[in-house]
Structures are given as structure tokens and as C-alpha cells.
Amino acid sequence: MNPPAAGQDPVQRVAASGLPPYIFDLAKLETAAADAAAWIPHTPAALCVNPSLSILELGWKHLAKLLDPSEPGERVPVPGPERVLAWKDPPMEVVRVSPGRDEDLLALKIVAEELDPPEVAREAGVPVGVIDRAVDAAVDRGILLRPPSRIRRETPPFPGETWPDKFLAAPVFTLQWHVTQECDLSCLHCYDRSRRSPLLPSFGERILDDLRAFCRERFVGGQVSFTGGNPFLYDPFERLYRRAVELGLEVAILGNPVPRGRLEPILAIRRPAYFQVSLEGLPDHNDLIRGKGNFEAVFSFLDLLREYGVFSVVLLTLTEGNVDQVLPLADLLKGRTDRFAFNRLSAAGRGSDLAPVGKVKFESFLRSYLDETARNPVLGRKDNLLNIVHQERGEPPFGGCTGFGCGAAFNFVSLLPDGEVHACRKFPSPIGRIGVQSFSEIYDSPEARRYRRGAKTCDGCAIRPVCGGCLAVAQSLGRDISFETDPYCFMTR
Fold this sequence. Notes:
Blueprint: H1 10-17, H2 23-37, E1 48-49, E2 54-61, H3 64-67, E3 78-89, E4 94-99, H4 102-112, H5 117-124, H6 128-141, E5 144-145, E6 172-178, H7 201-217, E7 221-227, H8 237-246, E8 250-254, H9 260-269, E9 275-278, H10 283-290, H11 294-307, E10 312-318, H12 326-333, E11 339-344, H13 359-373, H14 386-392, E12 412-415, E13 420-422, E14 430-433, H15 439-443, H16 446-453, H17 471-476
Parallel strand pairs: 6-7, 6-12, 7-8, 8-9, 9-10, 10-11
Antiparallel strand pairs: 1-5, 2-3, 3-4, 12-13, 13-14
Helix pairs in contact: 4-6, 5-6, 7-8
């Protein structure tokens, strides 16, 4: 090889040496990747830029794809400016190199300069959910680091093996919002038929703003499950649904069958995560509880939800009168719904007039139910006490009622139409009033902590993180829920 001529610039010298002209930029990128590889990941105390991140302004495109095989697209370098990011992805413990996307750079700017996302959204003329999604996407890529969920189970310590975080730290907080008491049904087991004045829609929008702020502060996703009564009977329902979507909150609907023309405007805003309806058994029994013609109306509505690609859930309230109809009903629902599960009757409100299933029969039913889940894919697991059978059989547990055993005032609260907040809608469990208090103040209140704590006699139980029984059932049957276990518990101590 001939030596380069004197006076040549670096690019000319590289070309004369036979090396590719992009070698300097490639070396810069390789150095940044090596620096990132040396970084030791840690858990941050606040949302922050990944300390291993380098942002390089290069004069060649596609160089990132030479170093990171996972990057799709063209791999032949071409001249042209490109901004490239290099960082260590903490969960995977691998170094990433990737062209900087506009949304990545926006997220970095917001966090590095401590900008207020709602203000950024106003200036850009977009919903704040768009800004939040950019930040969340940067967290998912590892460009930003976020502290772990602050919706986390507190002491008492759990016995035995170390429980994984998936049973201790909630990634999502759910507000079950009863926007109205108005209902087109009059079910015999309804928990509350009292008259409560609904909130003004403008105040409802401020509630959603506060929910978003609470979830961002606690580093969790937010979900609103709109229900009632029948939420479609509340005139501003569509307005609140749209606002929740704009805020980046997940949305779900718990209600009654509605006509196609009433459903479509909601779907045009966003398809809900799921739409839950109720059935109480086979046709005659269901219509006795929920009203003549309801069974047929629900089945027709399930077909409509399937037509629109909406995930459907059917929930049953378990009583002595329908316990023997659950599995036959599940057979009818196979292929008609995506999930079918049950709650035990809480003898509150009108439900106090119905007979709860007997304890011995309930235990036998749980075993049959679990056996049937292997055959019927629509059967879902919801009741916490199913984990006792899992434990007996040496099977891994499931998350229980809300993914964390009893989720009352933990990863879930109920908001009533007049602003009263309860730990769970299935029984009187007031923990505060929105408007007078923020979600943070309500969540951190002594009342909420009491429901989260559950029964002290459950301490030491081998399945405590995924159980805790049902506080609603326990209180409705006269138990002191701060001390006494669910009366249906059959766990061998």
C-alpha cells in the first residue's frame, strides 16, 4: 500500500489507506457502546435519563445497524446526517444502538429539562396522553429509567418463599367509576339502589386529571372502568370516556347491553380494553334475578361485541340459587365470550335477601370449577380462595381477584356518582371524598390503609399475597375484617 500524500485531509488519508470513509463515525459509535457496556445499572429514585446514554451526531446513516443486529432495515452506510443513541438496556443487560426518533428526543428533553407534560401538550396542541406515551415508550426502550411501582404491598412480611414482584407491586391502578346510579335493570342482588346525584362533567374531567397525576406520581399505568348503574344512561359518559383516552388512561366498560348505534360512538373514540356484562345463571334463573328477556339480550350483545372485536367478560354473582348452573352456563358461553368468572354474593343492599352458597358446597364447587378450566377456555379465575386448591395440588398460584389477592384500596378503588370513594363497591367501605381530597390523600389515608391491611389472622398464611379472602363477603356475614378471616376460608394451617 502506498503511503498517503502529504497535505491530505483525514478523509482523503482514510480513502488512500483503503479503509471505509465512515470509519471515524463508526469508531465514535463503538466507543459510546463500549462506555455504555461498562455502566452498572441501578434502581433510580426518580424518573431520569439513563446515565449510560450517549447521543451522537454522525455524518453517515445506517451505522447503528452495523453494531446492533436487532435494528431492522438497510445495512449499507450512506452519507448523510443522522443522530444515533447508544445505551445499556437495564432489564436485558445489553447495549443498544439506534437512530434517535423524534419521540425519543422529546421524552429526553422533557425529563432532562424537568418540563411539565401537560404544559408541553398544551403548547404542542395535543392531548397529554400523547406526551405521556412518548415518555413511557422511552422507558420501555431503557432510554429513560423509572423507579419501580409505588403501588406495592406493605408489611406484614409474607412467610416462606420470596414472592416475585408480580404478586407484590402493581403495574396498573384502576378506578372503578360509577358515573350514575341510573339503571335500566332492577337486579335482586344489587348492592346499592340509593339516590346519589352525579357529578358535573367538568368536575369529572378534573377527577380524571387528578387520577392521571396520581398514577404518574406512583409510576403505574392508570385505568378507568366506567360503570353504574348503566354508564350509557349518564349523558356526559361519552365526554368523560374521551377525556380518559386523551389522558392516556386505559378504559373499560362494566354495563348492560346497548344498541349498536349507542356502542359505535364509544368505539370510534377507542375500543375499550374489555366490556363486562353480567349473567346470573341459565335463562330462567337469570331472568328472575335481572329481568325478563335479559338472558337473550346479553347473548345477542356478546355477538355484537365479537363483531366489533371487543374483548368481552361475563361475570356472575354466586349464590345458593345458581351455584349448580355455573358450569352449564360456561358451556353455553364457550365461543360467545372471551372470559367468564364469578364473584361470591356480598349480602349488602338487596343482596341481603338472597341466600349465599353454603361453605361445604362452595369448597366442592371450587374444585370442580378448577378441573373444568382445563376443558373450557372461557373460564377465568377470580375468587382468591381458588388459590387454596392450587396450593393443595402443588400448582403455581394465580394473582387472585385483582392480581394481588384482595385489591381493595390497593390497586383498585371505587368512585360513586356523588364523589364518595370506597375501597370496594361490593360493601360499604368509605375511604374519602374526591374533590375534598386528592387521590393521593385518599390512598394514603388511615381508612384506605385499614382495608389494604386486611385481616390480621391471615398473617403467616402461605398464600397471603394472592389471597386475603373477600372483605366484602366477610363483612356482610358479620366478620371484623381487620382481624377475622373470610368465613369461607378452608386453608389448612
